[in-house]
Design brief:
The complex is a heterodimer of chains A (231) and B (431).
Chain A: H1 4-16, H2 19-22, E1 26-27, H3 31-36, E2 42-43, E3 47-52, H4 55-70, E4 75-80, E5 100-104, H5 108-120, E6 124-130, H6 136-149, E7 152-158, E8 169-175, E9 188-196, E10 202-209, E11 212-216, H7 219-230
Parallel strand pairs in A: 3-7, 3-8, 4-5, 4-6, 6-7
Antiparallel strand pairs in A: 1-2, 8-9, 9-10, 10-11
Helix pairs in contact in A: 5-6
Chain B: E1 5-9, H1 15-25, E2 32-35, E3 39-43, H2 54-67, E4 73-77, H3 80-89, H4 100-105, H5 116-124, H6 130-135, H7 138-145, H8 147-156, E5 173-183, H9 186-206, E6 209-220, E7 225-236, H10 239-250, E8 259-271, H11 291-302, E9 307-312, H12 318-321, E10 322-326, E11 346-358, E12 365-370, E13 373-386, E14 401-408, E15 413-418, E16 424-429
Antiparallel strand pairs in B: 1-3, 1-4, 2-3, 5-8, 6-7, 6-8, 9-10, 11-12, 11-16, 12-13, 13-14, 14-15, 15-16
Helix pairs in contact in B: 7-8, 9-10, 10-11
The chains are: A alpha/beta (231), B alpha+beta (431).
């Protein structure tokens, strides 16, 4: 554990940055990941970037988190340049289709506009958008919109796409070879936390099973954890 | 109350211009229509007081046509037929009930608007004026000319209704502003619009209705009309929300020399019951931050066909199973999807042709190629057989399909199928 004085200083800095207020509401991801995150889970009302080795993985991972934020009644908005999303594929991840609004916009500035509008709406729980890029200014504006309304934004894209300028967290979801007999709607992923404001990067192998995300403690994950704890 | 018709005769205009003018005449009455290829007919019943009397209305119309440089003659009378006749052949321009017969008496028979052959025939018989025709007993006219002539006479002299089909259906709610000076800036138009919305929304509220479709007609000085429309996914009468929707489209208006008249019509209304305002909330429930308002903004900017809700259909074929319904139409309940039919997160439209290598003929695939790149299959589930739905011919392209869920050695998961002619396709990506 870190030194108590250090922790105190960190808290003071946090107050200055208003991070305490900003990250007061979180949702759980998976046990080991939550313990790792500085606020005990994924902060709600923020912008998160999710890159995927395939967009499908990034989409499924953010769907799980969006569905948790939305609960029974919350609205989820999905904004993309095409109609390749197959809504039935999101059912296993807990998304309620009657609460899902799909928005297609071909031009990237329309997608950026729609994302902004959706994040401003206080009756939206989560926004998933396939966004080309966002510079520092537009990323800050998205963050401010999310903070004012309490909506959570997931900006999705393939790993090859340009990173978003200033997200609160940045994740990478890669597919992980499944065990024999593992269901295709209960996949395993290699999850990397590439960036986390106020926290440290980390890596886990997680599995979606029976509506829960479980961390698989394989060699790699324990090793990184041990290294991180030592450092 | 007697109905009043205004007929305009403008022989020099082209068809396109006439259509424009009909639309423009909408400012006087919503019941306007093109009358043949050289005239316009307006049912001005009930609109007269808005202009301070028939003579004022008529003067205003003539002045504007004159300013636009259009030659026109017009007349106002109790029936379409009388107004038509007076506009083209008469001297009086405003005629009331009892005076109509005397005003028409000396007009030529052409004023009866009859087919050319009948006019010729009448002339040949020496019946050159309307009064001469009316002196002949009906039975003789019927024997000689058939029903056409009598039918025309009845319509003209109000014994039979002559229905007018307006160029578009009259809006159930309508408010207008006529300005003293033309305006051209967007902010000025917004000011007028706000005023109009207040009037309309108050009326809608009284009748517990909300608007689904509104149209703002802006009448330009040069006799053309610019319109902007807004549609909403749910009925609404919230002024801030409607103003915000209009903001996006007002910029497309081309003011030219300026707008002088504005007409706001509600083309589609639906029941909207008053909602209880919450005391704690600063804004009422239906403010612009609400979800419905967001859907409307999306629809207005991107088109409502780009803003969709999902309905699950009773079909297992992936192309048919989901309907992307426009968010503008009211939702209907969908089917329940069985959880054991596992579907990918993304679909490829249309399915991509791939090559497969198989060890035993008819067996399951071991490798597949996307383009040149080879992928080894480490896990495979299937087949899930989907037979073509015979009642839809458009889907018989692949016949019966056998779907496999596969995972390659990188952990990437795909949905592939073999069609009835043993070709393989990649159809989707699993997470």
């Amino acid at each position: 554990m870190s030194h108590p004085t250090l922790q105190e200083l960190r808290d003071q800095l946090g107050c200055l940055e208003e991070t305490q207020r900003r990250f007061s509401r979180t949702i759980p991801i998976a046990d080991a990941v939550d313990r790792w995150m500085p606020h005990g889970g994924l902060p709600v009302g923020c912008i998160h970037e999710v890159k995927g080795a395939s967009v499908a993985s990034a989409l499924a991972f953010s769907s799980i988190l969006s569905a948790r934020i939305a609960g029974e009644q919350g609205n989820i908005v999905y904004i993309a340049p095409d109609r390749s999303l197959h809504p039935l594929g999101l059912l296993p991840y807990g998304v309620r289709l009657d609460r899902l609004l799909l928005v297609s916009a071909r031009r990237s500035q329309d997608i950026a506009w729609a994302t902004m509008e959706a994040l401003r709406c206080s009756q939206v729980s989560a926004v998933m958008a396939i966004l080309d890029s966002a510079d520092l200014t537009s990323s800050r504006r998205l963050q401010l919109a999310a903070e004012s309304s309490g909506a959570t934004g997931f900006l999705l894209g393939p790993v090859t796409s340009a990173p978003i300028a200033a997200p609160i967290t940045r994740w990478k979801v890669s597919s992980h070879v499944g065990k024999p007999g593992q269901r295709f709607d209960e996949p395993a992923w290699a999850l990397d936390l590439l960036y986390c404001r106020g926290g440290r990067p980390g890596s886990w192998t997680i599995e979606w099973r029976e509506q829960r995300l479980n961390t698989l403690f394989n060699q790699l994950a324990t090793q990184t954890t041990r290294e991180a704890l030592a450092g | 109350m007697a109905r009043r018709f205004l007929s305009l005769f403008c022989p020099d205009v082209t068809d396109d211009r006439l259509t424009q003018l009909v639309e423009w005449c909408d400012r006087y009455s919503p019941l306007a229509a093109a009358d043949g290829s050289d005239g316009i007919i307006l049912d001005i019943t009930g609109c007269i007081h808005l202009f301070g009397g028939e003579d004022k209305l008529f003067l205003d119309l003539q002045r504007r046509f004159h300013r636009m440089g259009i030659q026109s003659q017009g007349a106002i009378a109790d029936t379409w037929g009388i107004a038509w006749a007076l506009a083209r052949y008469g001297e009086q321009s405003i005629v009331h009930g009892g005076n109509a017969a005397s005003a028409l008496a000396l007009l030529p028979v052409e004023a009866l608007r009859l087919p050319y052959e009948i006019v010729l025939e009448l002339r040949r018989l020496g019946l050159s004026t309307i009064s001469a025709v009316r002196k002949i007993p009906r039975s003789s006219l019927a024997a000689r000319f058939g029903s056409t002539l009598l039918w025309r006479l009845d319509r003209i002299f109000q014994q039979a209704e002559e229905p007018l089909t307006p160029w578009r259906p009259a809006a159930p709610y309508r408010a207008s502003r006529i300005l003293a000076e033309p305006i051209s800036t967007v902010s000025a138009v917004e000011y007028v619009l706000h005023d109009l919305l207040q009037e309309i929304c108050k009326r809608l509220e009284r009748n517990r209705l909300g608007s689904r479709h509104m149209d703002l007609a802006c009448y330009r000085l040069d006799g053309t009309v610019d319109r902007c429309e807004i549609r909403t996914s749910k009925p609404t009468r919230s002024i801030p929300h409607l103003m915000r929707l209009f903001e996006g489209v007002l910029e497309t208006l081309k003011s030219g020399f300026g707008f002088e008249t504005f007409v706001l019509s509600v083309l589609d209304v639906e029941a909207l019951h008053p909602t209880q305002l919450s005391l704690s909330q600063a804004n009422p429930v239906e403010d612009e931050s609400s979800f419905n308002a967001l859907v409307d903004r999306f629809g207005m900017k991107l088109g409502f066909d780009q803003v969709n809700r999902i309905r699950v259909r009773e079909s297992y074929l992936p192309e048919q199973a989901v309907e992307f319904r426009s968010a503008a139409v009211s939702p209907i309940a969908g089917a329940e999807w069985p959880a054991y039919r596992i579907r990918p997160v993304r679909l490829i439209h249309p399915p991509m042709s791939i090559k497969i290598s198989i060890l035993i003929p008819g067996g399951s695939p071991v490798r597949f190629f996307i383009g040149e790149r080879q992928r080894r299959i480490v896990r495979l589930e299937g087949p899930e057989r989907l037979t073509a739905e015979w009642w839809r011919d458009s889907n018989s392209r692949w016949g019966t399909r056998d779907y496999y869920r596969i995972e390659d050695d990188q952990g990437l998961r795909f949905w592939i199928f073999r069609d009835s002619s043993e070709h393989w396709f990649l159809h989707g990506h699993f997470a």
